[in-house]
Amino acid sequence: MINLLLAFFSIISIISAYMIILSVNSVYSILYMLLVFLSSSSILFLLECEFIALMFLIVYIGAIAILFLFIVMMLDLKFATIKTSIFKYVPFAFIVGIVLLFEILNIIYQNFTFTPYVNSEIFNNNYINWFDKIDYITELEAVGQVLYTHYVLQFLIAGYILLLAVLCPVILVLNTNKQVQSQIFFKQLSRNYKNAIIKIN
Amino acid sequence: MISTVITLKEMTLFPELFLGISIIYIFIYGTFISYSTNQYPLIQSQVCHLGILTLVLVFILLISDNLLFFEEQSTFNDSISSDFLSFCSKLFILFFSSVSLLIIKQNLIDQKINNFEYIIILLLSILGMLILCSANDLVTAYLAIELQTLAFYTLAAFKKNSAFSAEAGLKYFVLGSLASGFFLFGSSFLYGITGSTNFEDFKDLFFWVVPGSIAYMNFEKFLATLNKEIYLQIFSDLGCSNEGFANLLNNQDLAIVLQQIQHEIYSNETKAYYAILNEALITELNSVNNIPAISDNYSLKFTDHNETPSISIIECQQNILKLFVLLDIIKFEKELQLTHLHNLAMYSDNDIRDMFCR
């Protein structure tokens, strides 16, 4: 079951990594990057490294992806259409790709070997970790045991900081003046390029 | 039944707890009153009065809670220390902030600032300041600093129809975030060198930065918790018997002892503390050269401003003893290591001589 999930998330991460460079819209590529981070975080959860998985979510998705998103939305990039055909680049890209693939395969084949005992019908490969049966807690439980006992005060202060972080943007942005705030959705949705005004200089 | 009850005396953050809860109450009251109808009633002067009342009540709590402020307590896993300095600074902060709220109340009405959240943000920043006063840990200090400055970022950018206000808020925010980054950078260095973020541990580990800081260090209770046998073993290994330091009256003997400590420091078990022990050793070695040859060991020498400051032998001996103590902790009591070092502060110097120099 875990192998299935591992394969599933790996496939999602590879495909979305490929789509980052393929997609024309910049915001889509950032969303695919977000999907890469999410799937690698899920893989880490499966491997029982919950702390690093949560750090991925907090730091990569919560800070870095948001930064990229804001920058791309600020820059207002148009759809870029490549006029030259893509087959011009195939020979050189093929060479570079083969070189990099050779590097990776070299490392893998030097550090891993094939075991003859994996799918054996005679030997039993499911060993039991006896110590885990006596004394086992996950990393997340360990973090919780320390965070909510020794560091409760810091946790509650962080809660107050989050309260401020929710309150302040609302104060800075909320405009209760109804005349400024009008958005008529039907007008916005029924815009065509024929109806819109285009400046031609 | 419950045999032990947590008394208010041991709840060192009771004023802050009250302030935090009353902020939430004022917040709920303000939200329900001012956003409930389509008419947005003005409650600014009410909320201002509520804020002043809250601060006065916190002030009263602080005073009544700390009539026994001579007891220095440290709670919340040694991250909050409530001593005389924190008490006085909180008094100062609360008194002047309540007075300032009184002063700005009419200005808020004149400037037509009708958001009741102004007071909420001010109170939250005061909460951050109060926690910062009694912080004993780098993490608590950072969180309190962030709470306080986040509130002020918003207050700087409060006026929405003024471009100056937006520019001020943005500049303050960017500079403040940079400063927080530097703070975290430095505290990560301190954690990497010492292994702890507690100010008590820093006090114990960096005592040698100011030679002659013997005035702040006492040794009694701490020595009571240690293994005296191991201590005497160290002393006998290094050639100091029960007479101990009474024999070390020459500079040369002190230097020999320090070199023997040097051998112990550069062993495998104390590898993690090379940085600190090395620095401490070097300053002590340097200070040995500054000891004038004297027979009177009991007084500090007051020097002229032109001469290099010299310390007396007794101070050097005590600093060497502190080095021993550190080594002992690191080598023999690894599981305690840094968490019990704050007891080092409780000892007086005369007992060292009583225990080891008969």
Mean pLDDT of chain A: 87
Q: In what range is the share of β-strand residues of chain A?
A: under 5%
Give the DSSP E fraction of chain B (strand runs of 2 or more residues). Answer: under 5%
Please work out how many helical segments of chain B DSSP would assign. 13
Which radius of gyration of chain B do the C-alpha atoms yield? 27 Å
Q: Estimate the global geometry of chain A from the Cα principal axes.
A: flat
Count of extended strands of chain B = 2
The ordered H/E elements of chain B are HHEEHHHHHHHHHHH
Uncertain runs of chain B with pLDDT below 50, 5 residues or more? 214-227, 240-250, 293-309, 335-349
Oligomer: heterodimer
Which parts of chain A are unreliable, with pLDDT below 50 for 5 consecutive residues or more? Answer: none
Largest β sheet strand count, sense and barrel closure of chain B: 2 strands, antiparallel
Helix- and strand-based class of chain B? mainly alpha
Mean pLDDT of chain B: 73
Helical content of chain A (DSSP H or I, runs of 4+): 55-70%
Q: What's the β-strand tally of chain A?
A: 0
Helix content of chain B: 55-70%
What does this structure look like?
The complex is a heterodimer of chains A (201) and B (358). The longest helix of chain A has 26 residues, at 50-75. Chain A is mainly α and 201 residues long. The mean pLDDT of chain A is 87. Chain A starts with a helix and ends in a 12-residue tail after the last helix. In chain A, helix 1 packs antiparallel against helix 2. Helices cover 65% and strands 0% of the residues of chain A. With 358 residues, chain B is mainly α. Helix content of chain B is 61%, strand content 2%. In chain B, helix 10 (251-265) packs antiparallel against helix 11 (274-289) and helix 11 runs antiparallel to helix 12 (313-332). The radius of gyration of chain B is 27 Å and the shape is elongated. The model of chain B is unreliable at 214-227, 240-250, 293-309 and 335-349 (pLDDT under 50). At the A-B interface, helix 7 of A face helix 4 and helix 5 of B.
